[in-house]
Known about the structure:
The chain is α+β, with helices and mostly antiparallel strands.
Amino acid sequence: MFRINEMKSVRTRFQLSWITRSTLWLAATITIACSGVPASDRDDLSELVDRLENGFRSADRTGTLLSNTADLETILEVAESNSPRLQAAFYDLKAAVEKTGYAGGWADPKLSWGYFVENVETRVGPQEHRLSLSQSLKWPGKLSASSDMASKAAWAAYRRFQSERLQLAYRVKKAYYEYYLLGREIALTGENRELLRFWETVVRARYTVGLQKHPDLIKAQVELEVLNDRLAGLEDKKKPAVTLLLSELNLPTEVELALPEQLELTPKVLDEDSVITRIVKSNPDLRALDHLIDSEQARWRLADRMAYPGFNIGLTYIVTGEAADPAMHESGKDPWMINVSISLPLWFSQNNAKKQEARARYRAAQYRREMSADRLVARVSRILYEQRDAGRQVRLYRDLLLPQTEQLINATFTAYRAGESDFLSLLAAQRQLLNFQLSLDKALVSAATKEAQLQMLGGYDDSK
Length: 464
């Protein structure tokens, strides 16, 4: 009888040992298989966020460094430090990066306690309390898929942040160029008014003014009033123009910012094929869509694994009181046991629907990216045409029309003083000169604005 009991005890210990080894092996296998994305990927994102956040903290948010005659580079720095839209994009990025710290992680272990209202009497004593600790385990690949989704979504948020920064730079440049153009219009109109005043003195000196004024003098005075009215309108336009620029800097309208006097604007000759290739490759919005495609692919992977079971392992410890007979062998011994459970994904239609949904999302992201790329190429082609057209106008006005018009004015003025031409021809030539001067500056600003647009779309600075 003793040998039989001894054999049963040995067999029980062997079974417990086998269950323990099997459970530990299962836990180790699933732990390795469920590991998430490499830590280096999260570290790269965290380093980017920390560097950006330090830059925002050290930036001047009051605009105190913005002098009255600040250059474009300084204005761009102030805009980046002050823009609420850029700040919002940054904190969206920060939130997405923080999510990678827990997405794909283990579920919290569960600790439970139970009290036997009615004690379960056993040979070694009544069972009084029970303490359990359990940990859920997912099928291999589920955690890594969840982690991949969060990681790719964080990279997409970073690309959106880049896109918002480039868009901000473009809006600031565009407003700055328009403000500069307004200054040029005021300066050129003022120069033409001074020239017309000189002509008026010539007319006065040439004719004796009696009770009735000479028609040429009246024409000069009428043209002067037209220019005075134009200058007044341009001066009145300064307030809304600078307000637009200050709004992009998120600064109050009381901040003074003088009209830019000098700005080097030289249209560049760009190769269309190389520019389109560079922009399609580096466009932050397209790269964000690439990351989203990868994220949807990870979601598809996760949905595919939802059809596989999950596991739960645990340990239960039972507090046992003393036996009725204290002399009983192992009286009050506290038993413990290992628990293993498995979830059964029996609702096949639901799991299949999840997979089809994830697949559809993945396909939609692919087609959305393809559509965006096609639109981007069309947009870049249009901007390049407009940039080339502005460059042609610059060369036309600067190299041909302006020099010829200046020669025409000089010749017409000389002929007028000699009595060989009328004053109306001189006024027409002067108006043409002013229009050509303004057209040249508008073409220069247009070319610079188009180049800024290309930099916004491509995420690069072609001047470097």
